[in-house]
Structures are given as C-alpha cells and as structure tokens.
Design a protein that fits this description.
The chain is α/β, with parallel strands linked by helices. It has helices spanning 12-27, 43-52, 64-70, 90-100, 113-122, 138-143, and strands spanning 2-7, 31-38, 55-58, 76-81, 84-86, 106-107, 134-137, 151-152, 157-159. Helix 1 runs parallel beside helix 2. It comes from Bosea lupini.
C-alpha cells in the first residue's frame, strides 16, 4: 500500500486539485492512505483533509516531509505538493516500478525542462533527494537518506496554476 504525503502550502484550492487526481488511484487500490501536511492553522485545509479521509498534520516547512511520512500507514510513500497533478496513466507506471525495482526509489518529475530544473535547484543539499515527486520506501525517507538514486519514471506531473 502506498501513502500519498501532500504538502498543502496553505493552498486549499491546489490541495483539492491534487486530492481529486488521487481518487482513481484509491479506487484501484494503488493509494491506500493520504496525509496532508500544512505549516499553518488553516481550517479549510484541515476540513478538506477530513472530508477526503486523509490524516492532517501540522508541521513546520522544514519538517513537513518527515512529519507526514511518520504518519504514513503504507510501506511506500509518494511525496506531492498541493497542486501536483500526475499524468493520467501514472498508476500503471508506479505499479510497474514496484514490480520491477521494488527496493529502489523512483521520481515522477515535473513536466517541462525548465520546471524540472527549477525544482531540482530548489532542493537543498540537506534533503538528500527527498522532494516532491519521490516514490520511496517509508523507512528510507525516515532515515533521511535514500539507499540509491531514484529511478526516473516515464510519467510526469504538472503543477496546477490556480
């Protein structure tokens, strides 16, 4: 079972867009749980998490991924930012990865070279590769270091501009 950990970034509309894309993955049994992490005290975000059955966690921006992953029920986690919209055929790509490279992390990059480079540049050295779009075992993310470099998935994600 995979848990989606979503940083809300104080944006309820973008969070709603990302959660709506996850619904088919839940129906297929690919996503079993979601954790919404926010660094504010936004009632709309907490309500949205509750209405969709997701767990809600408050954490500082620097601790968002680790706090969210700690609440994950699944052995694998996919990290997303509010507004991230994976391409329509993303679930078969993830299932295939888990069947063929079960211990290796994977990355669903942002669509477009400029967006991917901006995101890559924004990743701090302290994060050790833990960033949005990452699919990895929960234990590796909690340890703070990925066992191997992520395998790049063929599917991409784009960020909704709301």
């Amino acid at each position: 079972m995979i848990t989606a950990v979503i940083r809300a970034n104080r944006d309820a509309r973008a969070l709603a867009a990302t959660l709506s894309v996850l619904i088919p993955a839940v129906a297929k049994g690919v996503i079993g749980h979601a954790v919404v992490v926010d660094d504010g005290d936004d009632a709309a975000i907490a309500r949205l998490a509750d209405e969709t059955g997701a767990s809600y966690v408050r954490a500082t921006a620097g601790e968002a991924w680790s706090s969210g992953v700690a609440q994950a029920r699944g052995d694998w986690v996919i990290l997303l930012e509010a507004g991230d919209l994976p391409e329509p055929q993303w679930t078969p790509s993830i299932e295939r990865h888990l069947l063929t490279a079960a211990a290796r992390p994977a990355l669903m990059p942002l669509r477009g070279m400029a967006a991917a480079l901006r995101e890559w540049g924004a990743v701090s050295l302290r994060s050790r590769g833990v960033r949005a779009g990452l699919l990895a075992p929960k234990t590796q993310i909690l340890s703070g270091k990925l066992a191997r470099a992520p395998r790049r998935l063929t599917v991409r994600r784009e960020r909704a501009e709301l």
